[in-house]
Amino acid sequence: MTNELTRAKYFSLILILGTLTALGPFSIDMYLPGFPAIGKDLGVDPTRVALSLSSFFIGISAGQLLYGPLLDRFGRKKPLYIGLVLYIISSAGCMYVSTLNSLIILRFIQAIGSCAAAVAAVAMVRDLFPVKENAKVFALLMLVVGTSPMIAPTVGSYVTSAFGWHMVFLILGMMGALILLATILWLPESYKPDTSLSLKPRPIITNFLAVVSEPQFYTYAFTGAISFSGLFAYVSASPLVFMDIYKLSDKAYGWVFAFLSIGLIGSSQVNSWLLKHFKSQEIVPVALMSQTIIGLIFIVCAWNNWLSLAGIIALLFAFLCCMGCINPNTSALCLAPFSKNAGSASALMGALQMGIGSLASAVVSLYDTHTATPMAVTMCGSSLLALIILLLGRRKTGSALTAAGKDGAVLVH
């Protein structure tokens, strides 16, 4: 097979896996500018609409634990098909809600569907690419995923202004249908179903416990998840901060959100370059310490009302730049020891990210202070706690990191 064809295959795999991973973030970001309009139509305060965001986070967290064993038992594609169909149906249902409670429930179901895509994509990275390439592949996926906060809020703001917020969910449903079609036609099955795996509760729990008892997994899974929860706090609080405190229009908010995402995308690609010179386990602590310092500066400035619009954008941009160097590396490091049960490991990692992220989202939503302080405290706290867990966990991982990936996945050409 020619190198050109190999590169084309590599590109198509990254693109499809990236769109699968981006489906959840798109579902989060695209409807954020519509919060005021949704609140008005459903007769509730716009701040309460954030409950539908929290229910989405909870759905993704719970759903990943469901899909992990299914992906190992039936292969990657069949559970993925079921999840995408569920996503399409629930997206259509969101268009016709008349109460906030209905939206909260349907968003939960929509999340259950979308998380099949996220878990399958992460597991397939472990299936299809060599372990030593995983961090680079995750960085490339983040490049695709990073288009979500760049495009989704901006598109969502214009769609909401022109056609109403209901149309946002129609577009999301159509995206799910296109991704389902691409998955059927062009994504290879990367894992032979393991019929020996039982779907009874006890063996499933035993399998999850075996994964979470691996020091390298729990160190980097919790480090990555807690650090990543700072992003959830930012996403949840940003509509209030920018549209209520700084009085930006929904369209201007969309553009600011898009600009800030450049930090996340750009740094993830800088991370690919850094990996040529440093190991993942060397990059993570430096990025976390930098993120914690930025968070502390953010708290001081927010508490004293020193932040102009430009100032808060600069601090958030710097914080997200650190995130782009943390997440790909922690994801690769916690999955490296696994091949046979990569689906379960991927599910646990994703469940931790979304579960802890939903808590951060809920915490920041509890404080109606009309300042940026709750956002700053939550974001800084997530970085500091992640750094502490990393430093404690590294005592047990130590040289075990060099043993990761002896089972060696094979790159598909």
From TrEMBL:
InterPro entries xref list: Efflux_drug-R_Bcr/CmlA (IPR004812), MFS (IPR011701), MFS_dom (IPR020846), MFS_trans_sf (IPR036259)
Membrane disposition: Multi-pass membrane protein
Organism this protein belongs to: Chitinophaga niastensis
A GO term for molecular function: xenobiotic transmembrane transporter activity
Keywords assigned: Cell membrane, Membrane, Transmembrane, Transmembrane helix, Transport
A Pfam family it matches: MFS_1
Protein name from the UniProt record: DHA1 family bicyclomycin/chloramphenicol resistance-like MFS transporter
GO CC annotation terms, alphabetical: plasma membrane
GO biological process, alphabetically ordered: xenobiotic detoxification by transmembrane export across the plasma membrane
Cellular localisation: Cell membrane
Ranges where the Major facilitator superfamily (MFS) profile domain occurs: 13-398
Family per record: Belongs to the major facilitator superfamily. Bcr/CmlA family.
Main location group: membrane
